[in-house]
Amino acid sequence: MGADYLIQRNGYWQYHRRVPKAYAGLGGKTSKFVVISTKVAVADDRGGVKAARVAHRLNEQQEAHWRSLASGTPDKQRWQDAVSIARAHGLDYMTPVEAAQRQIKELLDRIEILNVGDRKTDVAVVDAVLGAVDKPRVTLSDLFTEYEKTQQTQISKMSPNQLRKWRGAKKAAADKFIEVRTDKAIADLRRDDFTGYADHWEARVISGEIGAGTANKAISHVTGMVRAVNKRLRLGLDPSIFTETRIAGGRDGNRSPFPVEHIRNVILAPGALDGLNDEARDVVYIVMETGCRPSEIVNLSKSRIKLGAEIPHIRVEAEGRLLKTEHSERDIPLVGMALEAMKRHPAGFPRYLDKGDNLSATIMKHFKEKKLLPQISEDVPLKKRPKYGNYSFRHSLKDRLKAVECPEEMIDELVGHATGKPKYGDGYGLQIKAKYLGAIALTPVAAESPGC
Q1: What is the dihedral of CA 426, 314, 275, 266, to 10 degrees?
Q2: Strand order in the sheet with 12-18
Q3: Furthest-apart CA pair in the chain: how many Å?
């Protein structure tokens, strides 16, 4: 875009653009063109690559300037444009209230800036330099949009599917908060807004409609977004209004480990996994032998599958997607059925790439239809019944490793959990990891010798 407005003049690249008809004559100006030097010499930038980037920035600022001059500019846009124009003049924007609190010398310095050229006759520039535009009132309907601006670094690391899920959850929580507490200015939020929101979710938990974990996620989404926006926009909310709103007993989403004998005698029984497609079936084998999250397996690229290494292994790291935690990045040896399964997919799992939810749904549907989940007696109270899912393999692997006296820190390193201690060096090597994983490697029932 910036290159479209570049011309050469006097040995320098110039930003050159005709004033759009919609903005002609604004600010008392009659010139048909805007010409601004990029200060980039043609001799230093023959192709205009650097100059195009400067021109792109100048064009954004110029359009902001025109919008600010135009009548009927929305308050929020006028505020954003004033901030942009102030920055274009090397200044931090200040609101009218902040301007009234500044030292007289700083204000005089800003007035001096307006004495250059025709700036003092340009209403938009005067408003931006002297701080004549009030900060707009940000409402709850703006909450997600404003929050998203605080998370650009994290968003840039997400895969398309991760971003879709992240946005969906945040938007749904913001919409529900508005439904429960009405659309009000974020700066006007009080403690009863958050306790009232928590009461709404607690009533649904008590009625049995949802679990406490689901309710707490919804509460955390909203409080997290408001905290971040409050900090970024300096709205002045008291942090204490967010505290103690979580509902007790909110760990209902945890999955119980599969008993090792259940894995060996039921899940690995001949024909038990028949009906699953090849990729899903082999992911099951790899997950049960490595303790990886299913999403970590299906998003492996060919370069991170090290079958030709002295100790075959996989490397879990951020590549086109955000890992669940910083401790998730790790190397994991391949043993037993995991090694054989990975050999069948040396380039990864294209069917489920960035589609971990689809994989989990496919596996659980098969497990339920084939009755591969542990049976629970009807005599066990509903609240005390264990819950099983794909993550049950991870918890089972931890129990299996403890049974062979694997160090606790190594267990955490293998499954990608925080150890609670500072990390020094590269942690445990592949050889020692392979030793413990090999000691607990599973064997399908049909492959066992009669004496086992």
Answers
A1: -40
A2: 6-9, 12-18, 33-41
A3: 97
d(CA 128, CA 216): 43
**pLDDT at position 332:** 94
Where do the structural domains in the chain lie, given as residue ranges?
2-128, 140-242, 260-447
- According to CATH, the topology of domain 260-447 is hpI Integrase; Chain A (1.10.443)
Cβ atoms of 322 and 158 closer than 8 Å: yes
Q: Using one digit for the tens of pLDDT, what is the confidence trace for 249-301? A: 655 457 889 999 999 999 999 999 999 999 999 999 999 999 999 999 999 99
Question: Is pLDDT at 242 greater than 60 in this prediction?
Answer: yes
Query: Angle, to 10 degrees, between the axis of helix 212-233 and the axis of helix 191-206?
Result: 160
Q: How does pLDDT run across 421-432, given as a tens digit for each residue?
A: 555 555 678 999
Strands, DSSP E only, in 162-217?
A: none
Distance between CA atoms of residues 354 and 342, nearest Å: 18
> How far is residue 380's CA from residue 358's CA, in Å, rounded to a whole number?
31
Measured over the CA atoms of residue 430, residue 434, residue 437 and residue 441, the dihedral's sign is: positive
Residue 430, Cα to own-chain centre: how many angstroms? 30
pLDDT over 90 at 373, yes or no: yes
Q: Is the pLDDT confidence value at 450 over 50? A: no
Angle (CA) 342 343 348, round 5°: 55
Q: How many CB atoms lie within 10 A of CB 413?
A: 20
C-alpha span between 126 and 346 (Å, rounded): 63
Amino acid at 104: I
Cα 182 from Cα 176, distance rounded (Å): 9
Q: Tell me, what amino acid is at 23?
A: Y
